[in-house]
Amino acid sequence: MIRLNAVTKTYAAGSSRSHTAVDRVTLGITGERITVLQGPSGSGKTTLLSLIGGMARPTSGRIFFGEREITSLPERFLAELRRRQVGFVFQNYHLIRGVNVLENVILPALPLGEPFKAVRRRAEELMAQLEITRLATLPVQHLSGGEQQRVAIARALINRPSLLIADEPTAHLDSDLSEQFMAIVADLKERGHTVVIASHDPMVCRHRAVDTVVSLHDGRLATDAAVA
Ligand SMILES: Nc1ncnc2c1ncn2[C@@H]1O[C@H](COP(=O)(O)OP(=O)(O)OP(=O)(O)O)[C@@H](O)[C@H]1O
After folding, report:
1. Which residues' Cβ are closer than 6 Å to ligand 1?
2. pLDDT at residue 227, as a whole number
3. The domain containing residue 129 runs over which residues?
4. CA 172, CA 151: separation in Å to the nearest integer?
């Protein structure tokens, strides 16, 4: 479903602060699978996720989303692709402060014009699965880190994205909720979605639903091992 061909991302290219975060990575992420990116802090996991999800452009190399090359698509097309096809769970959540939990979950669905009742029902189902129903009317800034993380997960799933990207999604969850997150993504996979997770969490890397673990070191791919 997603192919990266010799993709490099250099921040501040051409300046004295230039830093290559992703270095000539060639990677195929096939549909209906869960892929985990692992690697030490600073190895380029977040940068690689943002390239895969069309949030960042490579300095060189080519990226294909399905049959479509997205390497140099104009921003408005990339934004449309992200809105319709990609759900993101960011490391620091990116929730909208001053807006309650239910509204945060529902907001990404509004520009797509689906009947509000259907969106609300789906939001309520996701919130029940993630055990945040009782928080629905609270402003997000009143929540703990783990609660905010679960809101971010529900929000990422509201548009039923074909690709879910999650950056350290279990970092603030206890083991039960981490298992719950993995059960949700395993279910997404069964329903034909593709999931890419960056994680240090051994439970995530070894989870039975994970198909592929990709290791990054200094922006380079180290291994691409199938998980039994
Ligand atoms: N916007 C930026 N400008 C300059 N350098 C950056 C930028 N974003 C990331 N980097 C650098 O690129 C390298 C890779 O960062 P990245 O966040 O992709 O790593 P990571 O593996 O996700 O790390 P962590 O596990 O700590 O989140 C790091 O050395 C980081 O300092």
Report:
1. 11-12, 19, 21, 39, 41-47
2. 38
3. 2-226
4. 12
Taking the centre of ligand 1 as the mean of its atom positions, its distance from the CA of residue 53, in whole angstroms, is 16
Going by alpha carbons, the residue nearest to atom 5 of ligand 1 is 11
Q: What is the pLDDT of residues 99-129, one digit of tens each?
A: 999 999 999 999 989 999 999 999 999 999 8
The DSSP call for residue 90 is -
Sign of the Cα pseudo-torsion (65, 195, 85, 72, in order): negative
Range list of β-strands (E), the chain = 2-11, 19-29, 34-38, 60-65, 68-69, 86-89, 163-167, 194-198, 212-217, 220-226
Q: How many structural domains compose the chain?
A: 1
Taking 60 as the threshold, does the pLDDT of residue 80 lie above it? yes
Q: Do 153 and 168 meet the contact criterion of CB atoms below 8 Å apart? A: no
Residue-level pLDDT at 82: 93
Any bridge partners for residue 35, and if so which? 196, 212
CA of 140 to the centre of ligand 1 (A): 27
Tally of CA atoms within 13 A in the half-sphere of 119 that contains its CB: 18
CATH of the domain at 109: 3.40.50.300
Nearest CA to ligand 1 atom 30: 42
Q: What is the pLDDT of residues 164-223, one digit of tens each?
A: 999 999 988 899 889 988 998 998 899 888 999 999 899 999 999 999 999 999 999 986
> Minimal CA–CA distance to 25: which of 52, 56, 65, 55?
52
Atom of ligand 1 nearest to the CA of 216: 21
Task: State how far the Cα of 205 lies from the Cα of 215, in Å rounded to an integer.
Answer: 10
